[in-house]
Design goal:
Order of helices and strands: HEHEHEHHEHHHHEEHHEH
Low-confidence stretches: none
Structural class: alpha/beta
Oligomer: single chain
Radius of gyration: 19 Å
Largest sheet: 4 strands, parallel
Shape: globular
Number of strands: 7
Strand order of the largest sheet: 3-2-1-4
Distance between the termini: 34 Å
Number of helices: 12
Helix content: 40-55%
């Protein structure tokens, strides 16, 4: 199916909804959904961003700016997944409990405000990855327009560019809890030091990165083609000193480089099949 046809299908889908609340993180997927929803529904579309310690402050600011640029009404709510030991113990299905908290917050909000639909930014590619959060959203009646129409991640970026959204090539930025190996307890202190470390590197000109945290060790992941430049041009002692101020003891560089979902490689086939 052509990209223009998929865009028309998305518009038709929102036209049938009449009113929709968008689970809006500020990422490229949910922002595209918010844009199309607003183009079709106007003020009958509402973007809602959930704020918790696992969201980088700079991501929240981006979400605000992008929503204002689109023109869509934007609301912020607090979620409390950090109060759930099933989440903070960081099991392999951690995202299930995160999305459960999110949609248990958004669904009653949507009902109270008169929005019959809650939609998210799940795309067609997400359905082929290990994403336990998708099940939690479905259990609570959320819809995923991009996935329903078969829009892939590449097509999300192509459509965003076609619609003149300046953030069409924005790197993926999952929640900070994804920086920890499964089984390591997640705390607000740990989330904050990871967030500060990533912000530090971005301010020094590095993007499309992750700072993985394991115990007291920070592992920097950069795009493979950037590793050599980082080693040759960065004041490494300054990086170590900054990370130690954030609370890490050891600072390492991953020689394989950044790869989305890298921590999932420890999951065996049985876990992936079980999902929960």
């Amino acid at each position: 199916m052509k990209l223009t046809e998929k865009l028309e299908q998305l518009k038709a889908l929102f036209g049938e909804m009449e009113r929709a609340l968008i689970a809006y993180s500020g990422g490229v997927d949910s922002t595209l959904v918010a844009k199309i929803a607003f183009d079709v529904l106007g003020d009958r579309a509402l973007a809602v961003t959930a704020v918790s310690p696992s969201l980088l402050p700079e991501e929240l600011e981006d979400a605000k700016i992008q929503a204002a640029t689109i023109g869509i009404p934007h609301q912020i709510v607090q979620t409390h997944e950090m109060e759930n030991p099933h989440y903070t113990s960081n099991p392999v299905n951690r995202c299930y409990f995160c999305k459960s908290e999110l949609h248990d917050t958004l669904k009653p909000l949507a009902v109270n405000l008169g929005y019959p639909y809650v939609v998210d930014g799940v795309n067609a590619d997400d359905l082929h990855d290990y994403r336990p959060g998708i099940q939690a959203a479905k259990e609570r009646g959320a819809r995923s327009p991009l996935a329903e129409v078969g829009v892939t991640k590449l097509e999300v970026r192509q459509l965003s560019q076609q619609l003149s959204l300046p953030w069409w090539d924005k790197p993926a930025q999952p929640c900070l809890s994804s920086r920890f190996p499964y089984g390591e307890e997640i705390t607000i202190t740990k989330l904050q030091r990871v967030g500060r470390a990533e912000i530090y590197l971005r301010k020094h000109g590095w993007d499309n990165l992750r700072v993985r945290s394991e115990g007291d060790t920070a592992r920097i992941e950069l795009a493979p083609e950037k590793i050599r430049d980082f080693v040759l041009t960065t004041d490494l002692p300054s990086v170590v000193s900054a990370f130690q101020e954030f609370g890490f003891i050891y600072v390492t560089l991953d020689l394989e480089g950044y790869r989305s979902g890298k921590l999932n490689q420890v999951l065996n086939k049985e876990v992936l099949e079980a999902k929960l």
